[in-house]
Structures are given as C-alpha cells and as structure tokens.
UniProtKB/TrEMBL annotation:
Residues 265-277 have a biased composition (Gly residues). Coiled coil: none annotated. Keywords: Dioxygenase, Oxidoreductase. Signal peptide: none annotated. It comes from the Bacteria. One of its GO terms (molecular function) is oxidoreductase activity, acting on single donors with incorporation of molecular oxygen, incorporation of two atoms of oxygen. Residues 77-157 form the Intradiol ring-cleavage dioxygenases domain. Residues 250-299 are annotated as: Disordered. This is Protocatechuate 3,4-dioxygenase beta subunit. The lineage of its organism: Bacteria, Pseudomonadati, Verrucomicrobiota, Verrucomicrobiia, Verrucomicrobiales. The keyword Oxidoreductase applies. The keyword Oxidoreductase applies.
Length: 299
C-alpha cells in the first residue's frame, strides 16, 4: 500500500472520487493526498535573496482575482481559468467546511513564479505577487479564484499548488499562522487537455515552450502514485476560457509534513509543511527546472 493510499483511507468503507467531487458512503470521504509545497510557496517557510517570503502576512492576499500583483499591476497573460474548490471536513461526516482558508499559487504561462529569483523561478520576480491568493470558504465550503491556465516547465506536469488553513488562522497579519496549516497538496490536470489538439499550449506566443515540455501525470514525481484526490474536472475551451472544479476532504488535525527534509525554516521563518529551510539547493520532490535529472519521490 502506498503512502497516498494510507493517507487516503477514512473509516472502513468504499470511497471513490468522481468527476471532481467526492462519492461518499456512510458519511465518509477520501482525504486529499499530502504533497510537497515545492520551492516557491511564499508562505513563510523559506527565503529568497536573504529575505523570508511570506505573502500570507499581507491583507491584500485575500482576493479572488489573482492574475496581477497585489497593487493591480503586472497582470499575467494567459487563457482565463476559473477555479472552484470545495472543502469538506473529514472529521465531521464530510460536511462542507465553512470559514477555512485556501491559499493557491502557480506558475505563469511561461513557467515562472512570483516572489522568487533565479533560474528555478524563471527570472527575478521577488517584488511581484502575481498568481497567488487566498479565499475563505463560504457556507457551502467553496472558494473561487479567477486566474489563468498555468504553463508548465521541464520536470513537472501541469499543476496548481494549494494549502488549507484552519478558520482561526490570522491570514493577512504578521502572526497567527503557526499550527494552523491543515493540508498541503497540488491539483492535477487531465492530459487530454494539456496535451490534446485543443490544448491552450498550442498558442506558443503566450505559452512559450509549454507545448513541448510534455510530461505525463504518471511520470511526474508528485503525481506518479495517483491523482485520485487531486484531479480537476475542467470544462470550456482555449478561446473563451476554462472552468475547473474539485472537492477535497481535510482533517481538523494538521497533516504530517510532506516533502524532503530540510531542517527548520530560516531564522524568523515558521515551520509548516516540512519543506526546505531557506532557498533549497535543488527542487523539492520533483519541482522541475531546465535542465536537470529528476530526483526520486523519496529524495
């Protein structure tokens, strides 16, 4: 039984994920797989350029449209992408979980990340906040984000990172996050969309080399052990945009750290998902950068 299957079991019942939602039997559901946050979380757990990166202390991070920097400048180009994510409480019969916080981040159409600099980040973007944002779940347990269809880079399949924080987390303040991180995971994309004839990556003027950076979910170091709890359901097209949806089940007990060991965070940083402290010397658990050999899943 793989690590993912162990994490995914909840009660003794038959569970399956169907069409981006959770098929529940006997008041149970499948816990979302815990994954690495990668080298670019900007959640206070690492640093870049000698400074701890943490957008979660800025109240402007609470926003639905994440395409630009916090000040509205530097909007990112790409096919419109609307994400709807529903959180369920694994410990309360999988009921919709209102009031918890969902933080998402992903790369640009060209494969770059805001808040970081260097070849791995795709350039110097330390002073930018694009493609990062937090929403609190509504009464139905749902958050909605307006963003762009992510690009991809060598060594990784297309993906979106996300973290879920407890309702009493003080998002947008300088403290109040320690012990509030409940889950860290990633969202997967159907290969029929990323690699098919209708893929937005065919627009090379926008998406650059994403079309030729082909890596299946099966061969991806994060998704290779399955995407049962992480696969998005996506409708739409590359002309008008896409609408994606998924339901994830989270426990009230903070999940065990995922990702490679890296010691504690740099001085002044916070602990959380077990990712590397400071700027990692290499990508974490499959986070790609051209060119390099892929690390192992347990690396």
């Amino acid at each position: 039984m793989t690590r993912r299957h162990v994490l995914g079991m909840s009660l003794v019942t038959t569970i399956s994920a169907v069409g981006g939602g959770l098929e529940r039997v006997g008041g149970s559901c499948q816990q979302v797989a815990q994954e690495t946050a990668g080298p670019f979380p900007a959640d206070g757990s690492n640093s870049s350029g000698g400074a701890i990166k943490n957008v979660l202390t800025d109240p402007r991070v609470l926003r639905r449209d994440i395409r630009s920097d916090f000040d509205g400048k530097n909007p990112q180009v790409g096919v419109p992408f609307e994400l709807s994510l529903k959180v369920r409480n694994l410990d309360r019969d999988c009921e919709a979980w209102a009031g918890c916080f969902v933080y998402i981040w992903h790369c640009t159409a060209q494969g770059a990340y805001s808040q970081y600099s260097g070849m791995m980040a795709g350039g110097d973007h330390e002073d930018h906040h694009f493609l990062r944002g937090v929403q609190a779940t509504d009464e139905e347990g749902v958050v909605r984000f307006q963003t762009i269809f992510p690009g991809r880079y060598d060594g990784r399949a297309t993906h979106i990172h996300f973290e879920v924080y407890a309702p009493d987390a003080k998002i947008g303040t300088v403290d109040g996050l320690d012990g509030k991180l409940l889950a860290t995971s990633q969202l997967a994309f159907p290969e029929s969309l990323t690699d098919g004839e209708e893929s937005p990556y065919h627009d090379v003027d926008v998406y650059g080399k994403s079309l030729t950076r082909v890596l299946s979910n099966e061969n991806d170091n994060v998704f290779s052990d399955g995407t049962e709890t992480e696969m998005l359901t996506i409708v739409g097209d590359s002309q008008k945009g896409y609408q994606a949806s998924i339901e994830v089940a989270i426990s009230e007990t903070p999940a065990a750290p995922s990702g490679p060991p890296g010691g504690g965070p740099p001085s002044g940083g916070r602990s959380g998902h077990g990712g590397p402290g400071g700027v990692p010397p290499r990508p974490a658990q499959g986070e790609g950068t051209p060119p390099r050999p892929l690390p192992s899943k347990e690396d």
